[in-house]
Design brief:
Blueprint: E1 2-3, E2 10-14, E3 17-20, H1 21-43, H2 51-77, H3 79-84, H4 99-117, H5 121-128, H6 133-146, E4 162-163, E5 171-172, H7 175-194, H8 203-219, H9 239-257
Parallel strand pairs: 1-4
Antiparallel strand pairs: 2-3, 4-5
Helix pairs in contact: 1-2, 1-6, 2-4, 4-5, 6-7, 7-8, 8-9
Keywords: Cell membrane, Lipoprotein, Membrane, Transferase, Transmembrane, Transmembrane helix
GO cellular component, one term: plasma membrane
Family: Belongs to the Lgt family.
C-alpha cells in the first residue's frame, strides 16, 4: 500500500509570484501540442499544415480549453460551490477543469479557426485529434500532484493502492494515474498511428470520440464520482459517464459514415 506524497502544489516562487505544478502541466501539454503538431505536419505534408498554422491553432485551442473547461466545471460539476464562492471561478491555477466543457470550448474554437482560415471543421479536428491526448495526460498528472479527483476505495489487496490522508485512511485507486495512462498515453498511441496513414475525412475525429469516451467511461468506475449537477444518475452511472455516452455514439456514427467519404 502506498501513501500519496502530498506534493506542495507550488513548484517554485519568484518573489510574490507562485508557479503551480498544475499550471506547469498545462504548459507542458501546450508545448507537446506544438512539437507533435509539427511532427505530424512533416509526416503528412499533403494535409497542408505548417508551423505558423499550428501556432495559431494552439492560441485558439488555449482560449477554448480554458474558457470551456472552467465553465464546464462551474456549470456541470460544482455549481453550488462556485455560486457560494464566485471569486474562485477565475482561480484556474488551483485546478478544477472539466474535460467535457473544455472539449466543447475547443470545438467552438476550432470551428472559428477554420472559418477564419478557410479550412473545413473536420479538416481541423482530424489534424488536432492525435495532438490532444498527451495534454490530457499532463492534466491528469497535475490532478495527481494537486491531490484531487482521487479514486474509489479498493476492494481486496492491490499493491499500488494509495491512501490520500486528507480524505481518509482507506486505500484507494490512484485513478488520476489510470486516466493519464488510458485517455492520455494509450489514446495518443492509437491516434498517432491511426493518423499516420490517409484516412477518410472525419475518421480520425471519430476514433478520438470513441476512444476517449470509452476510456473515460471505464476510468469512472475507479474514480470517486464528481458531484455533478445531479450527482450519480440512472443505472448508478456518474455525470461524466453520461456525458461520455453521446461522444461514443457520435463517434461510432461518424466512423460508419466515413465509408462514403474520400480518403485524406
Amino acid at each position: 500500500m502506498l501513501v500519496h506524497p502530498q506534493f506542495d502544489p507550488i513548484a517554485f516562487s519568484l518573489g510574490p509570484l507562485s508557479v503551480r505544478w498544475y499550471g506547469l502541466m498545462y504548459l507542458a501539454g501546450f508545448i507537446l501540442f506544438v512539437v507533435l503538431g509539427r511532427a505530424h505536419a512533416r509526416r503528412r505534408p499533403e494535409l497542408g499544415w505548417n508551423a505558423q498554422a499550428i501556432d495559431d491553432l494552439l492560441l485558439y485551442g488555449v482560449i477554448g480549453v480554458i474558457l470551456g473547461g472552467r465553465l464546464g466545471e462551474v456549470l456541470f460539476f460544482q455549481p453550488a460551490y462556485y455560486l457560494a464562492h464566485p471569486g474562485e471561478i477565475l482561480a484556474v491555477w488551483k485546478g478544477g477543469m472539466s474535460f467535457h466543457g473544455g472539449f466543447l470550448g475547443v470545438l467552438v474554437a476550432m470551428w472559428w479557426y477554420g472559418r477564419r482560415h478557410g479550412k473545413g471543421f473536420w479538416q481541423v479536428t482530424d489534424f488536432i485529434a492525435p495532438l490532444v491526448p498527451t495534454g490530457l495526460a499532463a492534466g491528469r498528472i497535475g490532478n495527481f500532484i494537486n491531490g484531487e479527483l482521487w479514486g474509489r476505495p479498493v476492494a481486496g489487496e492491490l499493491p499500488w493502492a494509495m491512501v490520500f490522508p486528507w480524505v481518509d485512511a482507506a486505500p484507494r485507486h490512484p485513478s488520476q494515474l489510470y486516466q493519464a495512462a488510458g485517455e492520455g498515453l494509450l489514446l495518443f498511441a492509437i491516434l498517432w498511428f491511426y493518423a499516420a496513414s490517409p484516412r477518410p475525412l472525419r475518421a480520425v475525429s471519430a476514433v478520438f470520440l470513441v476512444g476517449y469516451g470509452s476510456l473515460r467511461f471505464a476510468a469512472e468506475f475507479f474514480r470517486t464520482p464528481d458531484p455533478g449537477i445531479f450527482g450519480t444518475l440512472a443505472l448508478g452511472l456518474s455525470t461524466a459517464q453520461w456525458l461520455c455516452l453521446p461522444m461514443v455514439l457520435a463517434g461510432a456514427a461518424l466512423l460508419a459514415d466515413t465509408r462514403r467519404t474520400r480518403t485524406l
